[in-house]
Amino acid sequence: MSEVKTAPGSLPIPEKRPHKSGLVGSLFRGSIGKSQIEPNITTPTKERANPNTWWLGLGGIAAVTLVIQVSMVGWAWRHNLIYGFGDSLSHMTISRRIWDSPNPGLSQLGTNWLPLPHLLFAISTLWIWGWRTGLGGSIITIACAVVTSGSLYRIGQRTGLGNAGGWVAAMIVATNPSWSYVSSVPLTEPFTVAATSLATAGLIRWGTSERAYSTGLTALFCGLPTAAAMLTRYEAWGFAALAGVAVLWVSWRRFGWGHIMRRQLFAFAVLPALAVFWWLIFNWSVFGDPLAFEHGPYSSKTLVAPLGSLGLMYGKGNLPASFALYGKNVLDIAGSVTVVVAFIGLAVTFLQWRGLRQELWLCLAGVGIFVVASIWQGQVFIRLPRMIPPGVFNTRFGVESLPFLAVAAAQTLRLTQLKFPHLDIATLRRALALLMVIVFSGGWAIGLIDGTIPGTTLTVLEAKSDASAGADQRLVGKWLHQNAESGYILLDDTVLPVLPLIGFDFHRVIFTSSGPIWLRLLSRPRLATWVAVEVGNSSDVVWTTLQREGVFGTVFFPVAAFGSYVIYKQEPAPQQLPPDHLIPKTISGMVQ
Hints:
By secondary structure, the protein is mostly helical. The protein contains 24 helices and 5 strands. Strands 2-1-3-5-4 form a 5-stranded mixed beta sheet.
C-alpha cells in the first residue's frame, strides 16, 4: 500500500478499494462511469472552492422558506387553525405545566410523547399571549422548517448535484402545503423532520470528507442531531438504526476493521445510546416501568387498542397491507408528481451507484420503515379518505417521509451527467431545476388557495376535521378566558384539553396533573369557583365525582352550555384554597 500523506493531527485514510461499476454502470458514462476505481469523492469541486457559494444559496433557501411559513401562519390564523389539531393544545399544555403548575418539574413531561419538543415549546409558553393563541409554538416550528430546508439544500449539494440539486430538494419539501401547515403550528413532527435532515446532512459531510473526522466532530455533526431526533418522535429511532448500520458499513469500507472504524462507530452511537438510556431511566423513575412509553396506559399501543375490536386496525399483522396503507398516506401527502419523480431519482441512484458514502441520504428512509413496522405491530392507526369507513386521522405520518422523497427526486438531475454533444450541461441542469421548483411551488400556491386538493393538503383537511369535532370544547375554553376572572377552575383536562385557550396560570386552573391539589379539590369541590364538565361522560372524573356528591344544582349552578359541555359557577364565592402545607404530602399526583 502506498504511503498517504495527511495533514498534521488528521487520521490516516487507507488506499481506496477497487469499485466495480458493472454493465449497468457502464451505460451511464457520467462522472462515475469513467473509471473502474471507486470515484474520488473527496476531490474539491468548483462549488467547494468558493466558500461563498453555498452560504449564499443557504441564505436564499432560508429566506424563501421563511416567507412561505409566515404566509402559512397567516392563513392558519385567518382560518382559526393554529390550534386546529387537538394534539397542538396538548403539546402546549404539557410544555407550560413543566414550570407553571402546583406540581412542576420534569415529571410533567409524561410518557405519551418524547420530551425534546415539549422542552423547546416550554420556552414559548413564557409568552402568555403566544401560548394562548399558539403563535409562540409556531415560532419554534417555523425554525424547524428553516433548519429542514437548509439541511436538504446541503444534502442536495453534497450528493454531487450542486446548488441546483440543493434548491430542488429543499423546495420540494418547503412548498408542500401539508408540510408547510404542520411546520407552522405547535406539533412535534417538524422537530423529527428537522433533526433527521440535519443528521443526514452531517452524515453525508462525514462520508465525503477529504479527511477522516475526529471522534469529536463525528459526535457533534452526526451523533448529536441523531440523538436529538430520537428524543422528538419514535419514528426517528428507525432512522437512527439505519444510520448506525450505514456508519458501520462506510467506516469498515473506508478504514478497514480497525481502531479507526471502531472509534467512528462509537462517536456516532454514544449520544443516541445515552438519549435512549435517559428516556428508559426517566420512565422507570417516574412511572415505575422503563417501558411505560411502550405499553403504559398512555402509550400509543394502549390508546389504539379499542380500535382493534372494531376491526379498524388496518395493516395489523399484515406487512404488505401496512406498507400499502402508509404508501397511500405518503402519496396523498406528497402528491403523484413528487412520488413519480422520486421513483425516477431512485432508479437513477441505483443505476449510477457511486457507493454508500455519497448515498447516505438513503438513511432518511428509516423513518418510513419504522412507521410501516408500527402499523404492522398494531401501534399506529391511520385513516384515509378512500378507506371504508372514510375519514382522516394520523395523516401527519406521511409528512415525515417528504425529505426522503425530495432528495430522491433531486437525483433525477444526475441524468444531466450523461454525455450530450453540443449542449451546455450546467445550463441544462439549472433549467431542469428551475422547472421542478416552479412546478412544486405552483402546487403549493394552488393548494394554499384551494384546500380541497387532496394530493397535497391532506393534513389541512384533518386539522379542519379535528377543529370541527372539538368546536364545543374550544368554546368552553374561550368562554372561561373571557368570564372566569377570579377563583379556581376545576376540570378534567383529558376530557376538556383546552387549557391554553383558557389562558390562565396553572395555579388557578386545577386539572389532573396538578398533583395533590387536584385530589384535594375533588374531595372538597366547594373550594372551586368554576367547574367545567361533559355531562353524562363517565370518563370525566370531575363530572362523576361531583355528581355523586350531589353539588350540581345545590352548590354549583349552570352559567353556560356548549353542546354536552356545561360550565357551573358556585354562588356565593367559596372559601379560599388552603396553603400547600395543609395538603397531605403522601398523596401522589396524577401525570398524564
